[in-house]
Each structure stands twice: as structure tokens, then as C-alpha cells.
Write a structure and sequence with these properties.
Elements (H helix, E strand, L loop, with lengths): L6 E4 L9 E10 L5 E9 L11 E3 L2 E12 L3 E8 L4 E3 L7 E9 L4 E4 L12 E3 L6 E5 L5 H4 L4 E3 L16 E3 L9 E8 L2 E4 L3 E4 L8 E4 L2 E5 L2 E5 L2 E2 L12
GO biological process, one term: transcription elongation by RNA polymerase II
Main location: nucleus
GO cellular component, one term: SWI/SNF complex
Length: 246
């Protein structure tokens, strides 16, 4: 028996692949009597585009922007997706429990933290763990062999892993639908001895001002060997003209 809000395994699109993970958002039966579901796909790390230096939490999946309908007959079983460090879902094996902290945007090939969990309510019951699970981060399956052989990093919940050095990075290009002719757009770019990424905040030289302005990169591109960026510029409070209020 399946319900809206259940996370299910679905037959993979190709042989020898892991089952897809789908959250059911709708269930219905057509005129021919066949039962269908419509839902959101959750991607494993190997189903995303990412840098080989990126590390993932064990059993981590990502809420995608892909939705589709499939016959209920393609369901292979059930799983659970959410925060499982402090809570454990009743009646599920550990192998069928996943953690999701971020969304994956296929268009920009980027990850974004989920600020608010907006998914159908599940009927699964959760019970507190006696001892919270450690947060273990593991290397990408695309990482070089020497990185794969390193022991996994254990992160105390709520604390960042310190002194992580990305030794290998690559420029990450973007296909911009409405981009300017002759421009190559990037999600990540190495320029002027600095790694830049969409979403980064950078100092911008401001003529006539002592302090540099701060800007956030929303788009960046190369044209004729020069790099350009687009995004909002933030000013310091002392640079703004204030008006006294009586």
C-alpha cells in the first residue's frame, strides 16, 4: 500500500543502475484501471554534475527539479528521505534511510541548501536516537584514486570540517540560453590567480573611494580573453548620504 508522501524506489531507466528515489505527490487510477504516481525525483551524488573534489555526507541525496509520472507497477520498495542523524524512522533498514540537505538545479548544475522543507507529509513515525549519528563526509565517486583511499572525514554535527584543501579544481562552464554571442559563461572560473564561483562575494576596486565595494557574482563570462561579472554591488554605510530626521 502506497500513500502520498511516501518515498519509493522505482525501476531504473537503464539496466545495471540503482533504483530511482521518488517522493509521491499524487496517486490515481486511469480509465483502463492502471494505477499511476506523480512525484519528485531525488538524485544520488553520482546522478549530479559536480567537481571531483566535492565531498558528500554518507547516504546523501538531493531534491531535484525533475518531476514525472510513472506506473505504480514500477515501484520496487520504500525508503525514507530527511534528517536521520537525530531521528530514526520506524520499520526501515539503515540502507533505506537517506539524508537530504540541499536541492540540485540541473539547469545551472548547482547545489543550494534547503531553507524550508516543503514536501507532502509522510505517515512514517520517527523515534529519537539514543546517540546522534556522526556526520561522515566521503569523497566523490569521481575523485582520483588517491583521494578515494583516504579515510572518510568525520564531522561533529553543527561544526565545519577544518583545513580542507581543494587540490584539484577545474573551470566549470555553463550553457546560457540568453547569453551574448561570443561569450563563454562559467559557474566556476580560475582568473587572475583566483578561483571564482557563482554566488561568491568579491571586493571590487572603486575609483575615488578608500574602501573597496563588495559585489556578489550572479553571472560571469569570458570574452576576448577578459573576464566579466554581473551582480549586485553593496555599499558601506558611510558611503550613503544620510538625511537627519527631526
Amino acid at each position: 500500500m502506497y500513500h502520498v508522501g511516501d518515498y519509493v524506489y522505482v525501476e531504473p531507466a537503464e539496466p545495471n543502475l540503482q533504483p530511482h528515489i521518488v517522493c509521491i505527490e499524487r496517486l490515481w487510477q486511469d480509465n483502463a484501471g492502471e494505477k499511476w504516481l506523480y512525484g519528485c525525483w531525488f538524485y544520488r551524488p553520482n546522478e549530479t554534475f559536480h567537481l571531483a573534489t566535492r565531498k558528500f555526507v554518507e547516504k546523501e541525496v538531493f531534491k531535484s527539479d525533475y518531476f514525472n509520472k510513472i506506473p505504480v507497477s514500477m515501484i520496487l520498495g520504500k525508503g525514507v528521505v530527511k534528517d536521520y542523524f537525530k531521528l530514526h524512522p520506524e520499520g526501515f533498514r539503515a540502507d533505506d534511510v537517506y539524508v537530504c540537505e540541499s536541492r540540485y538545479l540541473a539547469k545551472t548544475k548547482s547545489f543550494k541548501k534547503i531553507k524550508m522543507w516543503i514536501m507532502p507529509l509522510s505517515s512514517v513515525s520517527f523515534v529519537p536516537r539514543d546517540i546522534p549519528l556522526p556526520v561522515i563526509r566521503v569523497a566523490s565517486m569521481f575523485a582520483p584514486k588517491q583521494d578515494e583511499e583516504k579515510p572518510a572525514e568525520i564531522q561533529e554535527e553543527g561544526k565545519a570540517v577544518g583545513n580542507i584543501v581543494d587540490k584539484e579544481r577545474k573551470d566549470v562552464t555553463l550553457d546560457m540560453t540568453n547569453g551574448e554571442p561570443g561569450c563563454q559563461y562559467y559557474e566556476q572560473l580560475y582568473y587572475n590567480d583566483t578561483w571564482l564561483k557563482v554566488g561568491d562575494c568579491v571586493y571590487i576596486r572603486s575609483h575615488g573611494l578608500v574602501r573597496h565595494r563588495v559585489g556578489r557574482i550572479e553571472k560571469m563570462w569570458m570574452r576576448d580573453g577578459a573576464a566579466y561579472l554581473f551582480g549586485p554591488i553593496f555599499i558601506h554605510a558611510e558611503d550613503e548620504v544620510h538625511q537627519d530626521v527631526l
